[in-house]
Amino acid sequence: MVRKIVLAAAAGLLLAAGVAAGGGAFAEPTPPPDPASIPPPVFDFDTDPAKAVVARVKFDSRTQAHVESTKVTTSRARGHSGEPSILRLRLTDVDGAEIEQINAWSPLWRLDGGPNGSKAVRSSGTGNFIVPFSPALAAMTVTDVRLNQQVVTVDLAAPIRTFCAANPADPDCKESDLAVTAVEPAAPLFGVLGQPITVTVASTVANHGPDGPSDARVRQEVSAAAGLTIADGAPVTTDVPVAVGTPQRLTRTYTVTCTQPGTVNLTATTRVAPKLPSVVDAQSANDVRSATLGVTCAVPATVNVKPGSADNVVNLNPGVLPVGVLTTAAGEYGNPVAIDATTIDWSTLRLGSPSRILAGLGARETHGKIHPEDVEELDERTRDGDTDAMLHFDPKADGLAVGDTSACVYGRLRVAGAMVAFYGCDRVTVRP
Known about the structure:
The protein is mainly β. The chain folds into three domains: 161 residues, Immunoglobulin-like (Sandwich), CATH 2.60.40; 124 residues, Immunoglobulins (Immunoglobulin-like, Sandwich); 131 residues, Immunoglobulin-like (Sandwich), CATH 2.60.40. Helix content is 3%, strand content 49%. The strands form eight sheets. Strands 14, 16, 18, 20, 22, 26, 29 and 30 form an eight-stranded mixed beta sheet that branches. The radius of gyration is 35 Å and the shape is elongated.
């Protein structure tokens, strides 16, 4: 149904408003029609809205204009029907979806009150575009129909937001205290340099009322200090309805890669705001929440299970399993960071399958120390003259199980003067 809109302008002109379709300019603009050939609008005083949004727009030419002011008015305005297609107004909601399109009069078309109505086209002019109030209304685009050129876009969300903040009891407005109540980032026990891991961030938003449900616009973002890269870290905005007393939980995953050893902080931030400008959230202090997670970045290490043995058969029987951690230069065995295995802190060591190590489990070093010696390299024959670390574990003690194909060592050693995590694995065959 075509809505009645209102003409209003400075110097006695009241301009109609409505919805406009955007478009590009023609190469050679079509001259305006003879003003005398355009019938004047027919005013309607009975079907106009009781509440409207008014945008005062200054036209510097047919193709250039700027907004002077916007406001919501509760005064009834004159409406008119049978508008000529001089301007077209396009009303859209907060998602950019079209609500309505309506033809409108132009403040450049001068009315003199004579029998033929319009008489001339002015080079500039100011008019008030008045559109019916709607809680979903967000923007109005004004297009010159004959030139098929967009002239100006007007933000209507701001005056609606201002009006509802001052009049929360208005039937077209809602009052909802939206809040971010939790931000919970989680990561694996550690990541290895150059190997991506998945970080999960769970955010909870709530509506403390009094009105609801209200659509909430939730923005989740992450940032990291030097030493971490985030492959898919662009902020993400999600719209969710939030009823009073029924929080919503949103979970997002990120691919994160360690680029330097140590503990590197990742910060997750979540913000919430009403989606509609007609929803008032007076408590802004709880609209944003952040949480910081320390991601442990481990250096890769070269591990040799049962040095000197090519088959690496591990029997789950009484006894200890010898495991060597090799001292390596940067680039050796593809390791990006040089490792001095003699700096290993034996009390931090664990041996186990990858899943058990990531779960914080694994067998401890049996002898309570490391044994510095020149351990066989991975060819099981060569000794390169470096002082490595020989370790001993009971594989049954929370470490390995039949079916495991990898035995991994996790712990801490000194790199560039700091104690950092290290991790390395070797293939094994586990037997009862």
